Amino acid sequence: MSQAQTDQKPVGIFREERSLPVAQRSRRNRRGRSGAWQTAGGAIAALLLVALAVDNYRLHQQMQQNQMTIGQLQQTAQTNAALTKALQQPNAQLYALEGTQKSSGSLVVVPAQNQVTIVNDLPPLPKGQVYRLWAIAANEPEPTYCGEFNAGAIASWSAPEAVCSKNVAQMLITAELASDPPIPKGELVMKSRG
What we know:
By secondary structure, this protein is α+β, with helices and mostly antiparallel strands. About 35% of the residues lie in helices and about 30% in strands.
């Protein structure tokens, strides 16, 4: 081989490549690494935002359910307080009411004050109708009108007649038209046992 041939560098895969300066190589690597980190960071941030949104929605639903439960408990507490107050009166009479359609309730009558308190789970009536309370005295065949009320957990009023709070054999609740005179002709909704 001649001198010219030995001075030539091999061509092809063994050829030496000129290397880039160190500063350029590190910049190029940083750009590649930082782009990958930015993409990964963006994906993680997006996942965290989705997770937070789902958790926020779940907490909002739970808060609404808790608020409904609190409202129901407050209503029950008010009902219990009114019933307890009525029962603490001297000579208070308690009547357990049975409904004709799975309704139930309690009636407390305080004879000294002619005070009547009803705790019930009656359904709301159509517009123009009311519930009416009637008392049947021990020796009387006809019921006496004792007041009217709308559906609600509790109703309380002063009875118009003394017979509504003394010597009562049975209490009745009917659904009547509000415009009708106080004569029992509507549907029987509840009655006391006995």
